[in-house]
Design goal:
binds zinc ion; Rossmann fold; 2 domains; 409 residues; alpha/beta; 10 helices
């Protein structure tokens, strides 16, 4: 079978902004597969040849993504008993401050889609907004939101949101923070959200800024993750929302024009539901292709460097345990000599993965590392420092640690 055949299992995605099926291939991403079957084995990173919107092509149906987020949620924060990190707290505070001036009154009805454990809604509640509700695919998140903040969270996703929210309508504001980049069926999702909003209702959107990936140090190609399948710029986000009958009231790029603290580049925008749909011609977006190509070039250079360390492991036969089974590891297993290394087990903090197998080897919990003597390869850049701290301080382990990246200050 040809190496690229698996892409063809899934239909080509037409551009959700302009409908064009002509696209320019920028990069081909590949992942290894888990014993339970993985969400996807790879995809093509493309931009629309007509309007310039960036997205992952040849990917599974929305139903596959829905099942993944329901069953494999990593947003339950079990390690912290459902509590978010300090960074999230600052970010949610900044978001509620950005949205509040646009809301008609403190009686406004707010919905946070993909609310995880409800911390953003809690910061609205602290500001006097009492009509807040969340939606999340994970029932664990819903229970945590109730327990931690007394916030009501319904279990559901954008696929069944119309039915789940039927008794709560109409809404004055819908929040989509870190959601739209995960959605395969963007058109249906936006039509359903439109249906939830009152006339003149607001839609707050935060998405990663694909034009700025290159300036953000993360592991190579990490932005092309198993879960991120739309690559927005400020221009393409405005094009998309105008196409679905929304008027842009505010658009900002962070950290480029930095007023809030962020650990990744994002576009933040507020849109108002318009009564009339206008016919419109999308503004040509050249920034996404340029930004993604810069990012691919930078990623390639870092990738070449970490391959040297992995090649050494493949050749010296040292017994290792690999920490992390997310995008970073799945990609290295598919694209580097990591499978040739003497891997004895994988370890991951997400309980949904524990007990499964990867590459024919068990995925164990961090607590299972006691009495293991192998060296631990940390397969992450963003969490390298935190994982090292967890190994040394929380678990109290003295195992050799192998890192692929310099520690960032
Ligand atoms: Zn297009």
């Amino acid at each position: 079978m040809s190496e690229t055949l698996f892409y063809q299992r899934y239909a080509k995605r037409a551009c959700v902004i302009c409908g064009s099926e002509a696209s320019i291939l920028l990069f081909r991403q590949t992942f290894s597969e888990m014993s339970s079957g993985s969400l996807l084995k790879g995809y093509d990173v493309v931009v629309c040849a007509s309007c310039g919107f960036g997205f992952a092509d040849h990917i599974p149906d929305q139903a596959n993504f829905d099942a993944h987020y329901r069953d494999m949620s990593k947003y339950e924060y079990q390690d912290q008993g459902g509590q978010e990190t300090e960074y999230d707290l600052i970010r949610f505070q900044a978001m509620s401050e950005a949205i509040s001036p646009f809301l008609p009154s403190s009686n406004a009805h707010l919905l946070d889609i993909g609310c995880a454990t409800g911390r953003l809604l809690a910061s609205f509640k602290e500001k006097g907004y009492n009509n807040v509700i969340g939606l999340d695919p994970s029932p664990v998140c819903a229970r945590a939101a109730q327990r931690l903040y007394g916030i009501r969270v319904l279990t559901g996703s954008l696929s069944n949101i119309t039915e789940v929210m039927a008794a709560e309508l109409p809404l004055d504001c819908v929040i989509l923070s870190g959601v739209l980049e995960h959605i395969r069926d963007v058109e249906q999702a936006l039509l359903r959200i439109r249906g939830l909003l009152a006339e003149g209702g607001l839609l707050f959107i935060e998405v990663p800024d694909a034009t700025d990936f290159a300036r953000w140090p993360d592991a190579p190609f990490q932005q092309f993750s198993t879960e991120h399948i739309n690559f927005f710029s400020a221009i393409s986000l405005k094009n998309l929302m105008t196409h679905y009958g929304f008027f842009q009231m505010l658009s900002q790029q962070f950290p480029r024009n930095q007023t809030v603290s962020t650990v990744m580049p994002v576009v933040v925008a507020i849109f108002r539901k318009e009564k009339k749909w206008r016919s419109f011609i999308p503004e040509r977006d050249n920034e996404t292709q340029r930004g993604l190509l810069d990012y691919i070039r930078e990623s390639q250079a870092v990738d070449d460097r970490i391959h040297q360390a992995i090649n050494a492991l493949a050749e010296n036969g040292q017994s290792i345990i690999v920490w992390g089974v997310g995008t970073h590891t799945l990609r290295l297993l598919a694209t580097s000599r990591l499978p040739e290394a003497n891997i004895r087990a994988f370890v991951d903090s997400n309980p949904h993965y524990q007990g499964l197998q990867l590459n024919g080897l068990p995925i164990i919990a961090p607590a299972d590392l006691q009495h293991r003597t192998e060296a631990i390869l940390i397969s992450s850049r963003a969490f390298q420092i935190a994982i090292e701290r967890q190994i040394r301080e929380e678990l109290g382990l003295a195992n050799e640690i192998i890192k692929l990246y310099d520690d960032q200050v």
